[in-house]
Amino acid sequence: MGTKITPYTSPEQEAKTQQVARMFDNIAHSYDFLNHLFSFGIDVLWRKKAIRILRKEQPQEVMDMATGTADFAIEAVRMGLTDARITGVDISPGMLEVGRKKVAKRGYTDAITLMEGDSVDLPFADGHFDAYTVAFGVRNFEQLEQGLSEMMRVLKPGGLGIILEFSKPRRFPMKQLFAFYFRFIMPTIGKLVSKDNAAYAYLPESVQAFPEGRAFLDVLDRVGYVETQDLPLTGGIASIYLARKPLTDPA
After folding, report:
1. Strand 155-166 vs strand 112-116: parallel, antiparallel, or unpaired?
2. Is residue 125 part of a domain?
3. Which of its termini does the chain have fewer beta carbons within 10 Å around, N or C?
């Protein structure tokens, strides 16, 4: 999968998972503000599109992996997924603390449960969820294929995985503008607001290293998903990936 990209250079023996958790703990207080600022609010539209796809599945049990501050879960309930139980899972206690306050403030505690957990070792039975979502989280997985496989394990046969992730535009001028913005503007503002020098330098590096588009579909296919799709968004800045668990185990 290439060179492993991590937020910090020390301590050297610290695993990427622990570094990512520490990074998000550090920036939890400013994450929502910066997230919407950097995307000019377009990330809200991307989430809405993903949720409209999710709604068509009429799920009763949904896992929101890498839930962060629970933006996706909250928006899903707000957009009418009121009959579903949503379990948000994240490795960062700091992000979850912010998320729980947001969930409680909106009165969604009956619909949304947030818990600490790692994608490679989920505390759920096989086939527990009708669907899962991951918004801007899979590129942070230390073991990408293992995480995708574990998330498929907890899906019911025929269940749908919806993955929203950054990608890299390939056409002029979006390609050049995006590269400049991601490499210079975002890290500078992120460092000033979040007070974490590394976090917003890690973001463009992690996007650059992520196997986007056809390469990511190949990963999903290799793990065992079927009906995989890539739906590019906003000139290729992001993509929604769809992946379904087979109805029967492959022979």
Report:
1. unpaired
2. yes
3. C
pLDDT of residue 137: 92
Phi-psi region of 80 (alpha: psi -120 to 50; beta: other; left: phi over 0): left
Neighbours of 105 (CB within 10 A): 10
- For residue 158, is it within any domain? yes
Q: pLDDT tens digits, residue range 101-131?
A: 999 999 999 999 999 999 999 999 999 999 9
Residue 1's pLDDT band (cuts 50, 70, 90): very low
Kindly indicate the confidence band of residue 219, based on its pLDDT and cuts at 50, 70 and 90.
very high
58-96 burial: b if 16+ Cβ within 10 Å, else e: ebebbbbbbbbbbbbbbbbbeeebeebbbbbbbbbebbb
Specify if 10 maps to a domain: no
81: domain CATH number is: 3.40.50.150
Is the pLDDT reported for residue 205 higher than 50? yes
Does residue 136 sit within a domain? Answer: yes
- What is the pLDDT averaged over residues 79-83? 91
Show the domain range for 215.
Answer: 16-244
Q: 111 CB contacts (<8 Å, ≥6 apart)?
A: 77, 82, 84, 85, 86
Total tally of structural domains belonging to the chain? 1
Predicted local confidence at residue 38, as pLDDT: 65
Predicted confidence at residue 138, as pLDDT, reads 95
The pLDDT, as a whole number, for residue 239 is 95
